[in-house]
Amino acid sequence: MTTKQQSRYLAAVISTVMLFTLAKTYTNPLEVSALEDLHKSLNNPQQLRGWRFEGGGDPCGELWIGVYCSGSSIVALQLRGLSLLGSLGNNLHRLHSLKNMDVSFNNLQGDIPFGLPPNATHLNMAYNNLTQSLLFSLPLMTSLLSLNLSHNSLSGPLANVFSGLQIKEMDLSFNNLTGDLPSSFGTLMNLNSLYLQNNRFTGSIIYLADLPLTDLNIEDNQFSGIFPSSFQSIPHLWIWGNKFHVEPNYKP
Fold first, then answer.
1. Any bridge partners for residue 250, and if so which?
2. DSSP letters along the chain, please?
């Protein structure tokens, strides 16, 4: 098949998929209401001018900007780097089928919503100006694998809400988080990568001692106490800028 024929074939396939989608999908109304609330909370941005809610709205059938679907269910929101202003609203928990949400590199403000998409596997809210750190809906998010809240304005201590999670990567770096690490960190037995640098955490890191970490960055905090020699097995480790008492056998 020539390049020209391949191009025609690909165009035909895309057209067929689009026609099938338009003919067969009508987005779950509960999920549409979540997007409508999000749209209003973002001050009806011009960047999302294709989001139309007249007559109920059908983001899956109409191929809205940043919205990806499987059948009539929204499975991904990719709104990275669109200079969006405002907040995330209060109805993200209605997106039951959502797996991936990326709203990083915007100008979002206010609290992280009390209810997040309950079945999400990847959440990226980095590089915004979010201010609330208490993620009360986390215990319900048993499918979550990756959480990135870095480079925000989160403050205060972390709530003890991490028990039972299957998360593999978590980035809370470059915020204003304070206090000791919660004991539920010690239950994160699938956690491979943890980034806590450039906060104001205090106290011990003992709850991290038995985790299967390959990447750990805790630089520029106020951690103290014994720095366990078992951490020598972590391939990528950054610890400077704290107040540890390093065990005699530790070799950096």
1. none
2. --HHHHHHHHHHHHHHHHHHHHHH----HHHHHHHHHHHHHTTS-GGGTT---GGG--HHHHT-TTEEEETTEEEEEE-TTS--EE---S-GGG-TT--EEE--SSEEEEPPPSS--TT-SEEE--SSEE-----TTGGG-TT--EEE--SS--EEPPPS--TT----EEE--SSEEEEPPPGGGGG-TT--EEE--SSEEEE--GGGTTS--SEEE--SSEEEEEE-GGGGG-SEEE--SSEEEE-TT---
Q: What is the pLDDT of residues 37-82, one digit of tens each?
A: 999 999 999 999 999 998 778 999 998 999 999 999 999 999 999 9
Q: How far apart are the C-alpha atoms of 174 and 8, rounded to whole Å? A: 48
Angle at 102 between CA 99 and CA 104, to 5 degrees: 160
Amino acid type, 48? L
Residues in the chain with pLDDT values less than 70: 1-25, 133-134, 246-252
Find the radius of gyration of the CA atoms of the chain: 22
| Residue owning tokens 């999000």 | 38
**Whether 182 contacts 205, CB under 8 Å:** no
Nearest to 137 by CA among 178, 171, 102, 96: 96
Its pTM stands at: 0.87
Alpha carbons within 13 A on the beta-carbon side of 108: 31
Per-residue pLDDT at 47? 96
